[in-house]
Input
Amino acid sequence: MPTVEEQIQQTVVSLEAGELAKWLWRAVLVVAALALSAFYLTSQFRGLPIAQAMDEAQVGREILRGHGWATEVARPLAIGQLRSNGEDVKTAIWRDTYNAPIPPLLDAAAMDVPYTQGWRLGGSVLVAPADRAIAMMGVIFFLASLWVLYLIALELFDQRLAYMAVGLTLICDMMWRYAISGLPQMFLLLLLHLNVYALLRAMRARYLNQPCLPWLAAVGLGFGLMALTHALSIFIFIPVLVFSGFFFRPRGLAAGLMLLLFLAVYTPWLIRNYHVCGDFRGVAGFDGLDGIVHSESGHMRRFDVDLAGASGNYFAENIRRNLVGQINLLIEYVGWCFIAPVALVSVLHAFRRPQTATFRWLLFAMWASAICGMSIFGMKEERGLAANQFYLLFVPLLICYGMAYVLVQWDRRIGLSFILPQWGDRSRVHNFLRTSLIVAVFAVCGLPLLSGLFLNKPSWPIEWPPYSPPYISVMNKWFAPNEIIGSDMPWAIAWYADRRSLWLPYDSKDLIDLSDYQRLGGPVAGIYFTPISGTQNTLGDLVDGEYRHWATYIVRTVDLSRSPYHYKLIMGMPDCVLYTDRNRKIGD
Output
């Protein structure tokens, strides 16, 4: 029977040998992941915070009902697109051509249980159970992507760095914000990590003269799924396709196989869009016009695309402006994880593993191509989040290279210079300084998360302004299913009120025409204004901005006796007002 001293010695040896240390790292990471998941899903979550997330969620609910990719949001630009292609507006306008197909499908799977058990808001319930279910799904995808990241880091470096990369990604506040946002970024992150892992296995097989086509086939299928999740990911696929055409033998075969499988996955959705609206891009194809003459909202609220006065220089200037803005906010876009941009300097280091040295160039090419895509289509932010934010997809991989470069440079050029001969055991001192460096990196990169834990407490239990879900949800009882509500936030009406909603057209006369002739299959029975068109804008915006034709309604000076909407109701919050054709609150 070993003595206590012998047991302690065995423990120390186990720690130094690395076996017990491995399990300690794993235990720490698992506990941290569970604790942070609970914190963000409870303390930090106040409902879906961004329009894109609500829009995808309401389409997901239609899928859950068996209606396919239907929608309860009508965009005037989509109406004009259907008219120009000779489609039946009354039916086709309620078939979604704006969102990618996979995010609503994932939302449908996530909200299955809350939907069947009752998803509506009421009483003291301020956050919809379906919102929380969608956020929980995002957290699950995030944690799954960390496991794949661990495998990738093992392929590129070693186990210690793999633990550090997972740990640094885990304490990145931006990752958690997007995980609970309802946006598909975490699913994209998981798919990207799976694609990178398959590509690295293919590269290893090529160096060992083993078959690599099965791995490359998986990459082609994976990027097809990414494109069905967010079309901007095609910009990431292009460098991979070019790289595969030159790197793998015989040249061209690998790239051809990947492209074929990618198209096999992605093309059916394009055909479906063409069948619905006469344009394979759908109405989402006009997203790239954000900032060209008008904002995305300004374009979507018109029946026809207005590019009067726009020239080639105008487009080039918009791209330049987007690019400069992204460069200025680079550290913010990578979640204030300063170790990620350090990876840019790693090109100066000659890594020993051939696939590690080769893949870094491909990684930077993928990142640069994604930046080009974000510069073309823009990054419209809402509450600090953007549906086109692709920087965070590269943060974990950049952390791997950045951390590896820092540790190598420390060991070779910096760490030993601090060690004085009289200190005794130079290796122990060196290990102490190296550990101190790692702790410092974690501490600095975790500052945004720590501020959220102790300082950044939400002041409202809901995402206000501009969203007030409990007051929006009551409209479900006030309006019939065939009636339509015009609004400056139709996605919130569709999601929380479960009623069809029209994005307010640019000209108020167009709404009257759509309502009187029921061109959308029903009357526009009410119009709902929020801080999006009101208190979040300046007087100049109301006089000469995108909502100037609605200014009298927004500032509440409209003559109701001459309007088809005779009744005005403040919807709980003073900045939200509902105009209706009759007093619908009676009998509620």
About this structure: The chain is about 60% helix and 5% strand. The chain has a mean pLDDT of 89. The radius of gyration is 27 Å.
